[in-house]
Structures are given as structure tokens and as C-alpha cells.
């Protein structure tokens, strides 16, 4: 009977929690939610490789009527590819004494257990994605250091760098700022004052509207802070195509008893296979600003 209950609970957790878990995971992660997640192929398991493609625009032509406008030259279709290997397994787990502790929360909208597992996985994924930052240091340098106060002048300078790098605007530009830099922006009159900005720029502590072409958000995660020697005064500005993040469609939940380990109780784990890689000219499509 206990084994049957265990199998039933495990099946219910996978059925009800997996789709909701993935949705909540994507909503809770700022960077992972914003970077490119489109790919061709299927992640069947550990080490699967999927492909992200980009069609290069052909060289346009201008013809003169009466001279050569009756003909045109075609160009071969050229596609660039980025192969991303799903070689990372993100895992979170709990040990617990009684199966009822899980069973009683399966149907809850805000399960404490599911929330805790999700939070743990969010931190791992976020730290992993931030570890891949590698902005170009060739002229113009996309690693901007020595910025003690991130104000309107600094934001304008970052906008100029992005424009010079020819970032496309179809997917938007984003800026994730640590609490220190974000507070600097909130204190900048030209950013927040209605004398300079006609709409309402601050909603619930977040700058909700565009400033200088960027969608600006506060990111207090340890992943962003790790890019600063002092764990503060750091920001990331990017076009979503600077990085490709791929995962399985759903995570895998598993529940097992601990009797084989000579222990009473159960363990629940959730794991997700995925991987990430900088995109085509990705080093030019993101800018890191920091104090040190």
C-alpha cells in the first residue's frame, strides 16, 4: 500500500507541479526570462545539442530606370548557426519524514515545498547565466569600469555604445541594475522627475517605462553581484539575442523512499536539463558596467 501511495503521489506531482513549476520559474528569473530561448531540435536528455539559426540579410541593390533597372542580382541564402549543448543539470531536493507532507500540498496554489524548490533552482540558473558574461573589450570597450554613480549621463553613454554596436530594436533593449546602481537612478532628477519625463516612471519601486531606449529593472540576485569585486555597483545592459538559453519543456520530479540508505523517510528532487551560450556577436550585444 505504501509503495502504491508513493507511486501515486509521484505521478501527481509530475502531472500537476511540472507545468506550473516551469511557468513560475520563467517568470521569477529576470535574465533567463529575457534572453533568447528559441531553438531548433529537441532536448532528449543530457548532452543534447540544439541549434539557433540566423539568416543574414542580402546586400541590397539600387538600379537606374532606363539603364539597368530591368535586371537584378540575387544572393545566396546565408545562415549562421549557434549550437547550444544542454550539458547542465539544475537540481533541487528535500528530505522529509512523511509522504503526507507532499501529498497535502499537491493541489495548493502556493505550495511552500514547490516554492522552495523553485527558488533554489532559480538561484543556480541565474548564477550560471551571469557566469557566461563576456563583453568585448576591443574598441569600443563594452566593459565599463570605474563608475561610482550610475546616473543619466552614464545611461546615455551606455545607450551610445549600444547604438554604435548596431543593436536591433525589434526585441527591445534591457538593463538589469543591482540595488546600488538602481538607487542612483531613482535619485537622478532627469530620470524620475515629471519635469523631465511626462509619464509615471516609478511603479512599485521599479522603473516601469523606457529610459533612453532601455527597459530598466532592479536585480538584487547574487548572480549579478558576483560580477563586481565589491558585490555592488554593477549592471548589465543587453539585447536579448546576446545569449541563448535552452531547456527541456518541463522539469522532472522524482520521489523515492530512503530505506535503501537505512533511513526512514523520503526524498523529492526536481531537475531540469539545459544549457546556454553567447549568440552571434554576443560579446558586442551586452555591456557590463561596474565600479571596480
Describe the protein:
This protein is of the alpha+beta class and 292 residues long. It folds into 2 domains: 2-132 and 245-278, Major capsid protein gp5 fold (2-Layer Sandwich), CATH 3.30.2400; 143-242 and 283-290, hypothetical protein PF0899 fold. Helix content is 29%, strand content 26%. It is built from 8 helices and 14 strands. The protein has helices at 2-28, 30-34, 100-103, 112-131, 152-164, 179-186, 189-192, 222-225; strands spanning 48-55, 79-86, 88-96, 143-144, 173-177, 202-203, 206-207, 210-211, 214-218, 234-238, 243-247, 252-257, 266-278, 286-290. It has a 6-stranded mixed sheet. Helix 1 (2-28) packs across helix 4 (112-131). The radius of gyration is 24 Å and the shape is globular. The N and C termini lie far apart (61 Å).
